[in-house]
From TrEMBL:
Protein's gene: cobB
Top-tier EC class: transferase
Cofactor(s) needed: Zn(2+)
Stated name of the protein: NAD-dependent protein deacylase
Protein residues bound to Zn(2+): 121, 124, 140, 143
Reactions performed catalytically: N(6)-acetyl-L-lysyl-[protein] + NAD(+) + H2O = 2''-O-acetyl-ADP-D-ribose + nicotinamide + L-lysyl-[protein]; N(6)-succinyl-L-lysyl-[protein] + NAD(+) + H2O = 2''-O-succinyl-ADP-D-ribose + nicotinamide + L-lysyl-[protein]
InterPro entries: DHS-like_NAD/FAD-binding_dom, NAD-dep_sirtuin_deacylases, Sirtuin, Sirtuin_cat_small_dom_sf, Sirtuin_class_III, Ssirtuin_cat_dom
Top-level taxon in the UniProt lineage: Bacteria
């Protein structure tokens, strides 16, 4: 049924979360593998944590960069890239910052929480893509001040233009898929409701129920790397 909806001139929007990268070996945020040392990611992915302990937060991000560098896109990422090529009116909105969707070939993508591979200055406007090994406390080459990861931390606003594009696309979707997200982090967690309010068919793909499962038209339980390739086959 869901498969039949992913075709023709339908406008398809897909929201992904950490569960899509789990099969690549990237720890999810809230799963059993989510801890880094004794810290929960959401306790470190915050501006106040960076202000108080910049070296610890950079150690956390450099650890993630190092780990993700060794990971490969999995069948879920590849299936979504293939879906983009098959559907003219398609948009992928990801909460993930690991860059695996782009490495899998996705191009119609909004990385709404930024990227591990972006760094920017805490003082001046310097910002760059950087896939290299960063020092423990990377400094801005322009003004010498401390750089920060180019991600959106908890308590920080999303980039206005990115959020507007996401809301516009979700509000026009005919089909909205929510894949591998615990549906806890706002504003992404409200997208399914926005899609539903505008008449979209809503589908959730997850290992287990989430707070939005009961509101979805379809809930497919299983591994994203198994289900997504089936949907596009
Ligand atoms: C905002 C980048 C407003 C960093 C991330 C107090 C003050 C201010 C804001 C708030 C506040 N209280 C609450 C908020 C809002 C807050 C929020 O939602 N908090 C939550 C925790 C309650 N949101 C924000 O702060 C956002 N900004 O609201 O701004 C504002 C406006 C003006 C001025 C100031 C503020 C910003 C949120 C962005 C945070 N940054 N990432 C980094 O990554 O280091 S979010 C982070 O969580 C990741 O991006 C992650 O993707 C995301 C969501 O988590 P999930 O992806 O869902 O991952 P999770 O581990 O939870 O779940 C994985 C799922 O996959 C599970 O369901 C599992 O079952 C499933 N799964 C696992 N394996 C598989 C699978 N499914 C299928 N197949 C598998 N194989």
């Amino acid at each position: 049924m869901v498969k039949a909806m992913l075709g023709g001139d339908r406008r398809v929007v897909v929201l992904t979360g950490a569960g899509v990268s789990a099969e690549s070996g990237v720890p999810t945020f809230r799963g059993r593998d989510g801890l880094w040392r004794t810290h929960r990611p959401e306790d470190l992915a915050r501006p106040d944590a960076f202000a108080a302990h910049p070296e610890l937060v950079w150690e956390f991000y450099n650890w993630r960069r190092e780990l993700v560098r060794k990971c490969e896109p999995n069948p879920a990422h590849l299936a979504l890239a293939a879906l983009e090529r098959a559907i003219p009116n398609f948009l992928l909105i990801t909460q993930n910052v690991d860059g695996l969707h782009v490495r899998a070939g996705s191009r119609k993508i909004l990385e709404m929480h930024g990227s591990l591979w972006q760094v920017r200055c805490t003082v001046c406007s310097h910002a760059r893509e950087d896939h290299g090994d960063l020092p423990e406390m990377p400094e801005c080459p322009v003004c010498g001040h401390l750089l920060r990861p180019g991600v959106v931390w908890f308590g920080e606003p999303l980039v206005p233009g990115v959020l507007r594009l996401a809301i516009e696309a979700v509000g026009k979707a005919d089909v909205f898929l929510s894949v591998g997200t615990s549906s806890l982090v706002q504003p992404a967690a409200s997208f399914y409701q926005l899609a539903k309010d505008h008449g979209a068919v809503t589908v959730e793909i997850n290992l287990e129920p989430t707070p939005s499962t009961g509101f979805m038209d379809f809930a497919l339980h299983g591994m994203a790397g198994d289900i997504l390739p089936e949907l596009i086959a």
